[in-house]
Amino acid sequence: MIQDSIPAIIISAILPLLITYFSTAYLIKKLTARGWVAMDYHKPDKPNIPRPAGPAIILGLLITLIILYAITRNNGILAISIATLSGFIVGIIDDLRTLSGPLKPLLMIAGGLPIILLGTYSPYFTFPLFGAARISLIYFLLILFAIPVTANTVNTIDVLNGAVSGFVILTSIPVIFALFLKQQFVLAASAIVLFSAAIGFFMHHKFPSKIFPGDSGTLAFGAMYGAIVIVGGVELVGVIAILPAIMNSFFYLSSVRRFTEHRKIKIRPTVVLDDGRLVAERDSKAPITLVRLIVADAPMSEKEIVQSIYKLTAFSSLLAIIVAALTWVKL
Amino acid sequence: MGEAMKTIYPIMGIMTVALVLLLVLSYLIFTVVVPFPDIVPGGILITAIVKAVISGILVLFWIFALWQLTMLYMKRKVYKTT
Asked: B18 touching A, CB under 8 A?
């Protein structure tokens, strides 16, 4: 019953936002004082921006998830918490001492283990119009790959100021909607935690960014997203919502033809003009990315590109909401 | 129409095709391929391999279709000046 979950939903909506917002503000001062900064290449004056914000993000997410687990005793929340923490740990290692391209997704496989070990999944894949299909063995493998795939997919959209935080806010909306339709209110509350923490972080990360999330922030967001859609059984909705990021990873991997760190790419997908605007690299050897597609016609400012990413994500989230309605609304 | 929207609409088109193909191919896999009866009596393994191969081909077709659409977009918009 939704009445039983109202306290959990209220806590999930407010607490992560406040914790993430204030702990990120604290972290901005601390990281700047310690000189933990990275250059913002897309600004004319190339300022140094503190990073990583992952510790502030994980604080907002985990404290609320622990409270949620204490209230509900739902093993799904426990599995989501461990998966999120594993994303953060791999990310913070990468932030401190860069991990190789293939090693990061391999380490992230551990994030799927708690979902399997706690048995918090259902091997039924639900489709709109033609119902559910049981895929026991393949689903088992799918869980192991789901967390690395979603975590790295979300990580790849962290290209410009505010892109990844806005992306997580928009993509968590259809997941919350689908979980409410399925009447899985506790898991919907966990998706609200993600939504709320992303808003708290977005306030500092939006253009012009005062802090960058680092891999610890993006992988924690992505791992949590993947864990929620698996435990909640809203896989298709989750996949459709993040289509812009999936396409971005797919274009990139297809054109580069290997797992590699973006730092090692010789020809950049875009060129930064003197006025800070970005234009598509015309060299056919340059990797294909979503940003390169967006600036294909004419140079655009960072703010315009990020707005385009939001529009594309809003569109994919709308498609995901339609699919959720077609799947779970009984007429 | 704004400059930004001119590039967004074709990308939205690619996303819509990706979604429609995803649903159609999933439908084919789970309602046609998966319930397919054994090809030879007692040949569970052979049938499973055939099902996996057909499903794999359909997934590859999805990837191929997306790649072709993207390359078409790249040729028209990005590579046209090289």
From this structure: yes
Inside any domain, residue A23: yes
In this complex, do A315 and B12 lie within 8 Å of one another by their Cβ atoms? Answer: yes
Cβ–Cβ under 8 Å, residues A291 and A159:
yes
- Which of A283, A249, A254 shows the shortest CA–CA distance to A269? A283
pLDDT in tens, chain A (331 residues): 778 889 999 999 999 999 999 999 999 999 999 999 999 988 888 899 999 999 999 999 999 999 999 999 999 999 999 999 999 999 999 999 888 777 888 888 988 999 999 999 888 888 887 778 777 777 888 889 899 999 999 999 998 999 999 999 999 999 999 999 999 999 999 999 999 999 999 999 999 999 999 999 999 999 999 999 999 999 999 999 999 999 888 888 877 765 555 556 678 888 888 888 998 888 888 888 999 999 988 899 999 999 999 999 999 999 999 999 999 987 6
The answer as to whether A258 is a domain residue is: no
Number of domains observed in the structure of chain A: 1
What is the distance between the alpha carbons of residues A197 and A14, in angstroms, rounded to a whole number? 9
Q: Which two tokens stand for residue B72?
A: 């078409």
Q: Residues of A with CB below 8 A from B19's CB?
A: 240, 243, 319, 323
In a domain, A67, yes or no: yes
d(CA A57, CA A163): 16
Whether A15 contacts A67, CB under 8 Å: yes
pTM of the model: 0.92
Name which of A87, A78, A29, A34 is nearest A57 in CA terms: A87
Classify residue A90: in a domain, yes or no: yes
Dump the DSSP string for A190-204: HHHHHHHHHHHHHHH
